[in-house]
Amino acid sequence: MPAKIISGEEIGAEIRAELKPEIDRLKEKQGVTPGLAVVLVGEDPASQVYVRMKGRACEDMGMHGESIVLPESTSEHELLATVDRLNEDPAIHGMIVQLPVPDHIDANKVLRRIDPQKDVDGFHPENVGKVAIGDDSGFPPATPFGVQQMLMRSGIEISGAHAVIVGRSNIVGRPVASLLLQKGPGGNATVTVCHSRTKNIGEVTRSADILIVAIGRPEFVKADMVRPGAVVIDVGTNRVDDATRERGYRLVGDVDFDAVKEVASAISPVPGGVGPMTVTMLIYNTVRAAQRWAAI
Ligand code: GUN
Asked: Where does 142-275 sit in CATH, by number?
């Protein structure tokens, strides 16, 4: 039987519908319009798409959105000055600097400059540390948070499950491991993290009850790497050439969807899976940041 589809479009819409009354309340009762600033340096086409989506989501939710697009030639000093300005801006409760930044800029230095209270991407070491130790005052990064919500809201038993994560990035792999390992709801999994040097990776992935793939390689996970009945979340978004498409490419995940859906019990598609959840959880974190601001 083909797998149940875990739709990030549907789950994301459900969460945004839950957030809307809180946004309206903050605006009407507290005079605070949650504000998100998205900073993009350069012209990476995929990043431009993400930044547009984030801006549109803010608008749809009645929030204040600011997109700041800087040229590729922007110096590290200029970018830090932009971060400083947004740290001080009372209309901005959350900010993100879209990654990757050009090579001449030290991304770590920039991420450390963001006020942790406005770091809705959860990339500042203070938030990374809080998430790692299970301190819920930290902002979980949007994509891992979205993955966790997809599992929870699909009724998948995480507690006691063996969750295998393929990929050890700071943006996805490591923080997903932290979240699923935590004590409490959405956690209590037994977690294994695989990466490019893992031996017999198929053997490890086949032992997963929940398989989360974020390795950035198109259709890397094949059907024989998945245990029948496993739940598969595909975090990959890869452009592959496709002459039959008007734009010349199509998007595929890190999982061979057509084959794996015949083996898994549930699977997230690409597009329409984790992507919409990332935007939604960024909005969620921004609303939380605005709530804290309002409570000061
Ligand atoms: N690049 C890829 N994913 C992300 C993300 O979640 N946040 C930021 N800032 N950059 C990214």
From this structure: 3.40.50.720
